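Sample pair:
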Amino acid sequence: MTRAIERISRLEGVIKVPGDKSISHRALILGAMARGHQVIEGLSEAVDVATTADALRAMGCFVEVMPDGRTMVLPKVLRSEFSIDAGNSGTTARILAGVAAARATRCEITGDASLCRRPMLRVAEPLERMGARITLTNGGTLPAVVEGGALHGIEYETPLASAQVKSAILLAGLSADGTTTVIESTPSRDHTEIMLRAMGAALRRDGNRISVDGGTPIEGITLTVPGDFSSAAFFMVAALLVPGSQVMLPFTGINPRRIALMTVLQKMGGRVTIEGLHAGQLEPAGDIAVASSELQAIEIDDPATVASMIDEIPILAVAATQAQGRTVIHGAGELRHKESDRIEAMTTNLRALGATVEAFEDGFAIQGPTPLRGATVSSFGDHRVAMAMAVAGLIAEGTTHIENDEIVSISYPRFFMDLRALAR
């Protein structure tokens, strides 16, 4: 399916974005490992999260939406042998590999064509060091077979920032003999650690060292998932770029390890502010206000900043086309191993709209401001690329056609509906 996007005059209104996808995955998975029941309000409506729920059901868990709209997870009795179809979700495949290493006699994990091209060796290697046996296709990708058993704690230094790998190791460590420690060279998202602490895990942090003691059970909790910052990012940039715009994004997650894009946009001159905080939440949440702004170019190569906004770099690239000067991003080589090669995808699409883009192996340079013109672009089978190009289409002269636009359902099924609701 192809979506037509027209230039608009302004954006105005309030949009509550769906629940945070990363937190939703973890709320489901940790609920399946806990004693008692886990009750989740505001679970993400993303297809990826539904994939995790289906995978847990295949493992023998009870995962159902209650009449009041909240989701309940009960571990019941986990099967010793099961198969998981992770679809397009790297989070599902990698984190559940850690669960399977601890709980399964044999687990087969597969996914769609895109996921089966993405690297899995990064999670298999530490789990094998803990005592699991993992067989990967072509030496490093899905499909995979995980044969779990008696695990022992390890100390593992991650070669790259990956919250998925860290989570898989920590969840396997819950069932391992002794202490499991992950050492991060660059801090990654800490949603797993926050939730584990709340559920009673014996977890400690000392700088970039995160340790968990095996053998301590975790207890189910009741939690509310704030809005997904990565989803809010598209409306933030759209409001900055479309003249005369004012947008409010209430109850959005503002975990310090997720909001580097906000800081970068503020440094570029963007009027992005947190208007109010929501107390008493497991994760920090606030109301984000955005107004149209004149942006200045920026150079980014700090590993912590890049790691914190790796999913938002495609939409930052769109913002860079309208910033005064040359925006340069380095250290983002991980973008080449996402649902698409996002460096190649964004370079190809933005050039088609008339932008001046130089691609590097680990990022790109974008000269601005450049008037964009409508063209036919591809989602490259990547939800974040599709949404980024929709925002670009709002400021491009003429009509922008986005091929395979339905891929946005991976993270944000009602994205285009919400975008239309703000258009004036």
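The chain is about 30% helix and 25% strand.
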